[in-house]
User: What shape does this take?
Amino acid sequence: MNLDLLRSFFAIVDQGSLNKAAERLHVSQSTLSRQMHALEHEIGGRIFERSASGVALTATGHALHDSMRPLLGRFETALGEARRLARGQRSDLRIGYLMSAAAEYLHPALAALRRTHPEVKVKLLDLSPGEQIGALRRGEIDLALLGNAGAFLSREFFVRRLALLPVFVAVADTHPLAGRRTLALADLRGELFVGADERDMPGHNQWIVQLCRRARFRPRFVLDAESLTHALATVVTEGAVLLQPDYARSMKVPGIVFRPLQDSAVKWELLLAWQRGKVADPVRAILAALPTQRGAAG
Assistant: This one.
């Protein structure tokens, strides 16, 4: 159905006459009459009763009015939102993030955003990297904060490195490696590694394989953890090792210690990703508030 015909129909209903509706729409009365005849032809029945005093809705007209007015309203709202998005004029900001990284990297930027852009409504979603990537693709979030996925992310999204972080090894406090101040990759030969589900952390296990290959051994994975909590629990119950960025140390878990990897080439990338195309003003604002890149001390 032609939306212009519906808009003209509602203008006539609101004004009560073709003449007043024509003036409001800046068209001739004859043009408006032709539009209503076309709409009646499409529907298959009369929608107005015409008289010298104006027009009145028929039963068919009332049915059309009652059913289509809310639909047209929702369409106009959606169209307006799409146009604002195309112009980069959204007033809301949806951010996918990792809870473990939020306090150090995201919260200060959000505080700055509230001071400079108080009109922006922020919605935070604690999602795994895999969930964030899916949400970005579907347009459900505007910005993703995730780690070690840059190799394939940059082919699909705009990507910016937020930080390049040292890597730590999580081990049980009863593990023989817990007594060392630092560890090398070669020290992990023969250990069981906690992996991650490819759907939750794309590329994570392959990253571990590549690291261990540098030290000339092949890692053995005890399981793919469903979450960081699950991974840390497995470190204790299975005597396994877990590679994590330094911000993971903020999670105080009884029975677990973190030891830095001394290999200078082993780093964890913390990345920002957002959709290609026109960048909305709130996304620009939070990107400006976040650091471009920095390294964290061990």
